[in-house]
TrEMBL record:
Gene Ontology molecular functions: catalytic activity
Origin superkingdom: Bacteria
Residues covered by the Amidase domain: 28-475
Gene3D superfamilies per record: Amidase signature (AS) domain (3.90.1300.10)
Family: Belongs to the amidase family.
Name of the protein this chain belongs to: Indoleacetamide hydrolase
InterPro entries on file: Amidase (IPR000120), Amidase_CS (IPR020556), Amidase_dom (IPR023631), AS_sf (IPR036928)
Task performed by this protein: Hydrolyzes indole-3-acetamide (IAM) into indole-3-acetic acid (IAA).
Length: 498
């Protein structure tokens, strides 16, 4: 078998094992990954910055005893820094050149990973489809006419295309789980405080953004989490420590769990029959694993909750645009996309008092959610309301025109008059996905499970949300479902270069 086929067939854990045994070298894996990155680049468009020469140099000298020695990797072009590599954030704003690595970058390097590219993201991670003016459309390897999701859509496309077996990703409102659901991958949204974002920031979006990865296998997600979790000296807070290792959790039988199923759209928007079919598939797998499953409702998770989330994000976007203008020494209004500009303007019109009040309401609802679901080991629910959309299907231009025209007339009118604007923007931007923001607000972990492929050949995953700090139960459950379903053997229908 060629090294290219080995890269395609193995997960990260398997590749590292081959490196340790001397059956394949880090430089061979790196060259195979670079070749595949270039071969698939025209079709999926998932690379922001190639890191080929640095990858080759690293692969030639890497310590083969490291846990993931020589495994090709991708780092998202948003959120964490690689010293000397431009960070674009999916934007036409002049790139930022870091003079230090993020703590997480250093932990990836210490694990033995070899970054070969940075992966594409929509501008500042604000869309759940990876399409930007700066980099164009990132496409789904399962069908390049469809989206790979967002905002970690580049990461997901690279893993699904077999360029790398695992890739860094981040999630502020579903940005790990949505791409995983679209591309047939495992995507763990970690507990708040599990992985540090330092030294660039202490937290992002008021603590709603977390970092981890998209992977082919559950065991890769667990191993990578073992190698990267835990606070550093600058972390403002930390998740509850695990009882053991995440790798051990993924390897053990979960026992008989008590699971819940939540089907309702928090926005009362349509949910496709394919999504419900995927959820039923997950329930059937759970029951086959011996778990008790019951249907529940969460009536307090509704439009008001999602609206508060959207206003909070808008205020964060407004603050980010101010920081970017300060960094480059001028207004960035001409650089950013209209959707970003509209969201930022909405954020500027939300008062500081209303932002704080909204956060307090979100926290109160989160406490209720955590208390009322504490008796369940996990809650199964959808991620995306529809199968992966056609590229360009969520073009926000119509809504942006309407809202920007109204903003020009409203100026600084009371927030009460802004509520219809938020409602229009919310329904337009969240029509595709209604659920993932729940766990970003509550801080709970949630894992995307690639349980279903539609008749049209498109993946459609669902998620299992756990108790705060309890990734171990989620990984154990996910590994069992992976074994029962056989989804680990699925690959996007791409031709593998020899």
């Amino acid at each position: 078998m060629s090294v290219g086929h080995t890269l395609w067939a193995q997960d990260a854990t398997g590749l590292a094992d081959l490196v340790r045994k001397g059956e394949v070298s880090p430089i061979e894996l790196t060259e195979a990954a670079i070749a595949r990155a270039e071969a698939t680049r025209p079709d999926i468009n998932a690379t922001a910055e190639p890191l080929y020469e640095a990858a080759r140099a690293r692969a030639k000298t890497i310590d083969r005893s490291l846990p993931l020695a020589g495994v090709p990797f991708a780092i998202k072009d948003l959120g964490i820094a690689i010293k000397g590599v431009p960070t674009h954030g999916g934007s036409r704003i002049p790139a930022w050149l870091a003079d230090v690595n993020s703590v997480l970058t250093d932990r990836y390097l210490a694990a033995g990973l070899v970054p070969i590219v940075t992966s594409t993201a929509p501008e500042h991670g604000l869309r759940l489809m990876t399409e930007s003016k700066a980099f164009g459309i990132t496409r789904n390897p399962w069908n390049t006419g469809h989206t790979s999701g967002g905002s970690s859509g580049g990461a997901a496309a690279l893993v699904a295309a077999g360029v790398v077996p695992v890739a860094h990703a981040s999630d502020g409102g579903g940005s790990i789980r949505v791409p995983s659901a679209c591309t047939g991958l495992v995507g763990l949204k970690t507990s708040r405080g599990r992985i540090p974002l330092t030294p660039l920031v202490s937290e992002s979006w008021y603590g709603m953004v977390v970092d981890h990865a998209v992977t082919r296998s559950v065991r890769d997600s667990a191993l990578l989490l073992d190698l990267t979790h835990g606070p550093d000296r600058l972390s403002p807070y930390a998740a509850l420590p695990p009882k053991g290792t995440f790798t051990a959790a993924a390897a053990r039988d979960p026992g008989k769990l008590k699971l819940a199923v939540y089907r309702k759209s928090p926005l009362d928007l349509p949910v496709s029959l394919e999504t419900l079919k995927a959820l039923d598939t997950a329930v059937a797998l759970a029951r086959e694993g011996g778990h008790a499953v019951e249907e529940i409702d969460l009536p307090f998770i509704g439009r008001d909750f999602i609206s508060d989330f959207c206003r909070t994000v808008a205020s964060a976007v407004a603050g980010t645009m101010r920081a970017e203008a300060l960094r480059v020494g001028r207004s960035v209004a001409g650089d950013i996309e209209r959707a970003t500009r509209v969201l930022g303007r909405l954020g500027e019109m939300v008062s500081a008092g209303e932002t704080y009040a909204g956060l307090q309401r979100l926290h109160a609802t989160s406490r209720r959610l955590i208390e009322e679901t504490a008796r369940y080991d996990a809650v199964l629910m959808p991620i995306i309301a529809h199968p992966p959309l056609a590229c360009g299907a969520m073009d926000p231009k119509g809504a942006d025109d309407l809202i920007e025209n109204l903003l020009d007339k409203l100026h600084l009118t009371p927030l009460l008059r802004l509520k219809p604007l938020f409602g229009q923007l919310m329904d337009k931007s969240l029509w595709f996905t209604h659920w993932p923001a729940i766990q970003n607000v509550s801080g709970q972990p949630s894992i995307a499970l690639p349980v279903h492929v539609t008749d049209a050949g498109l993946p459609l995953g669902i998620q299992a949300a756990g108790r705060p700090g309890d990734e171990e139960t989620l990984l154990s459950l996910a590994a069992q479902m992976e074994k029962i379903s056989g989804w680990l053997g699925r690959r996007a229908p791409l031709k593998v270069p020899s």
